[in-house]
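Appendix B, record 7
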Amino acid sequence: MRDKVIFLGSGAGLLLAVVSAFLFSQQPSAQPPLFKPAANPFGKGIYANGMIESDQAQGENINIYPEVSGPVTQIMVTEGQAVHRGDPLLTVDDSVQRATAEQQRAQAEAAAATLRELRAEPRPETLAVSAAQMDNARATLKGAADQLAKLQHAFDMDAKSISRDALDNARNAVQVAATNLEVVEKQYALTKAGAWAYDIENADRTYTALSKASLSSAALLAKYTLRAPADGVVLAVHSSVGSYVSSQGAYDSYTQGFDPLVIMGLSQGHLQVRAYIDEILVHELPRPEAMKAEMCASSRSSRPRSSCPISARSGWICGCCR
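Structure tokens (predicted):
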């Protein structure tokens, strides 16, 4: 009886094991997709992320960073626009620097006016005044000398007719008039000689220093306007009016990093696509000379934002544009 029970239990266990193995070997049917996926336009293709960039010998676009900091006040170009070297791309708030440049320019102009004034001396009107003062001093001396001669003649005729005190005063008046004439003549010579050479040199150096400071300030002011460094095409503008930028570029809240403020490519009839292909799919790519680019999506960022098909049969590469 005991052996019969053991035999029946073993048979039931074996049957359960066979049923379990059968049930677990069954594959569940796939659930239907929630939405219809995008169809591959090519009969045979793969997908990859990529970016559009200009076809240059060095293989890089022109990344433009501002040399100054501040909020963007105006953007004068759009993506895809052709520009020439020196064309303005955008401007950064320059109100403080503009006021500083105007102040230093005014100081340089004032120093230049002072230098011209010193070099133009003597002023004709000032020289005329000095000449008139000299003529007046001569006339005063002549009057004092004539008065002394009269008194001396009277004293010689009659010593009692003129007091010695009056005669001494007349002699002193002549000496004072002669000394005053000497001073006026020297003042006239000094006025006629013009500005002192050392004063002119000092004014010249002051003007030179202020002029260079003004030029430096104007050069810094010009950097608040970003200009195209070469003929080309604007590929991307990573900022907007009101955004704060610095020499590091424009802050991107998506990557929490900094991007070039403007990206340019050279003027040419075509661009190149840089696509990121998994190494296991490289063998499915066509020959490089048979590849062509086709734009599938657009994005303002230089980062790839979507996947685009790469067809090995037709030889078309679809990369993501900037």
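Remarks on this record: Confidence is low (pLDDT under 50) at residues 297-322. Residues 44 and 313 are 6 Å apart (CA to CA).
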